[in-house]
Amino acid sequence: MAVIELTNVHKTYPPMWGPLAWGIGVLFREHRDTQPAAALRGVDLRVQRGTLLGLLGPSGSGKSTLLRIVAGLLSPSDGDVCVLGRDPLSQRGALLGQIGYVIRNGRSFYGHLSGYENLRFFAGLHGIPQPSRHHLILGLLRDLGLESVANQPQRSWSAGMTQRLAVARALLTSPSVLIMDEPTNGLDPDERSDFYGFLLDHIEQHDVTVLYATHDLNEAQFLCARIALMDRGQVVAQGNYFDVQRPARAIFKRPAPPPPASVDPGLAEYRKARFSTSDW
Question: Domains in the chain, start-ordered, CATH in brackets?
């Protein structure tokens, strides 16, 4: 039986209210779509126990949306999702501590606290007993190469250090399912190499199932036993790296789409008049 199962999963984000989209365009010069946006379109996926499955795809292909749905943080518009035999959304309480989720940024940490204090805080939220908390945290910091900076404020850490702290937090409860959204973002080559070794050892020792999102073809080839290639909200190929290599290279070599049209036909002229440098 698969640990993670998705059957015909769709996710459509509702459109942004028209006047709000127009206002954002004026103030921040950013386009916001006023039409429903299909992020996932009929995704079918199976991940067996102890497997590291890579979600490979360019930005905007639906990887992060899929991860949030599997983690129970987002509801699908249609389709069925099952993690460890349960619905991660309606049965979230039964899965607490069994799913670890690594996000791409450190905004969920408290910058004035040290790395050790951050992990101690989150360990308390998970109800980890006080006597075992200290040794658990020290072990994770050591294994992830953070022992020497453990008592420094997190705000002083590099992006790579903070990313490794996010991995440590996800492992506090010894989850059997690990969801990782580009976890090597911000890591230098040496840090990446050390992280790969740590992750592969952890999977082997603890029989963990990993869903790992990346846009790096080389990383997917080196790290992932199986790969699901995503493009425009669909899984377009599955298998080992050689099974997905040709369509992956075609997708990643595809030219980027042109920038979207302005929110309103008169917006460009409005900006020109409103933000004219001659008035400054």
Answer: 4-98+175-183+190-273 (3.40.50.300)
